[in-house]
Amino acid sequence: MKNILDFLVKGGIIMIPLFLCSVTALAVVIEKSVTLRRRRIIVPEVVSVLDNVKGAGDFALALAVCEKHRGSFANIARLALENRALPREELKESLGDQGRQEVHRLGRGLGVLETVAGIAPLLGLLGTVLGILKVFKVIAVMGVGQAAALAGGISEALITTIAGLFIGIPALVAYNYYSDRTESLVLEMENHSNRLLNKIHALQPGAEG
Hints:
Number of domains: 1
Number of strands: 0
Distance between the termini: 68 Å
């Protein structure tokens, strides 16, 4: 542990924002690993009760199940069932508005991951440039004959680049992974929502098309 701390300290002041970037990225990854679980977004009980709707009388039970569960799809389904007597286009527009809110909620934090993935390597490069400037100062004072001093200065200058890449690469991988996962969940919600919308206007006597 002491060796690791010594290694990080040698990186200089740039290691502070790099450390903050790493903590921020880790926090977002942990949050997304919890909030983007499929069972949390598309609750199986909600999907099951909607699939088993066979008549207009089943909508009340489906609404009760939706009200018991939290989740993006449950919110959309509840809105659809509560407003099932609306004309099809009006209901579709309402579902679209609710869907955009849920998509925004699901994607929250991904921009932070993308930012960390972009700036961490740049911060590392900045730290290396600052370190190289210190090496040039050593050369100006001691000349080029002090190989040990120059090698030590260059190795210290590269620490921030290593740290920046070590943070940026996983952050980029996590961003791509959770972006794809979010898109997949959104497409699945759209599919279920369209099926529910079609079922409402096929079974609901008061609905207008």
